[in-house]
C-alpha cells in the first residue's frame, strides 16, 4: 500500500448497550487513493449496528468515478436490500488527486486538518441546524433529531463538498458533540493520540453515546503502511 496516507480509526461503546457505529475503507485497483466511510446507526438496537456496517461498507466500495453522492445512494440501496427498518447516518470521503470529495447525510461529520486546527466541512442535517439557520429558538434535544438518513434521504438532500490538501477527520456525534474544536485540535496535535485520543477523551469527559473517529494524516507524513485499530461493533 505504498503511497497511501497513514490513517487511524478508533471506537468505544461508552455507556450504550452496544456499539452501533461502523467504519470502512477501501482502495480499488487504479483508484487515486482510499475511500473512507463512517456510519452511525440510528438507535442502539442490533438493527442499527447492522445498518451502519452495511452502509459504510457499501459506500466505501462504490467506484470513485461515480462520486461520493453516489456512494450514499449505493448505501441506501444496500439498506433497502437488507430489509428491516435499521437506519444510519453516514459520511463518505472519496479521493481525487490532492484531496477528497465528501458526501453526507445526518450528523456524521468531516473536518479538514492543517496540522494545527480542524475546520468543519459538513453541516449537520438536524432539526437544531434547521432552526439555527432561520434564527429560531429550539430545545436541546433537537441536536439529536436528524432530518436526513441513509434509508430516507432523497438525492437532492445529500450534502456534498470537497477539500484539497491537509489531513482529514471523520467523526460520529459521540465525539464532535462532546469535544470542543479546541480540544480536538489539542489531541490531533499530539502524534501519539490521534483517533484513539479523541474517542477516549470523549468517553472520559462524560460522553453518553458511541464514539468513533477516523483520522487521515496530512500527506507530508505519509508512510508506506496503513495503520488501523480494530474495534467491535454490534452483532
Automatic annotation (TrEMBL):
Residues 1-20 are annotated as: Disordered. Residues 6-218 form the PPM-type phosphatase domain. InterPro entries: PPM-type-like_dom_sf, PPM-type_phosphatase-like_dom. SMART domains: PP2Cc. This is Serine/threonine protein phosphatase. The lineage of its organism: Bacteria, Bacillati, Actinomycetota, Actinomycetes, Pseudonocardiales.
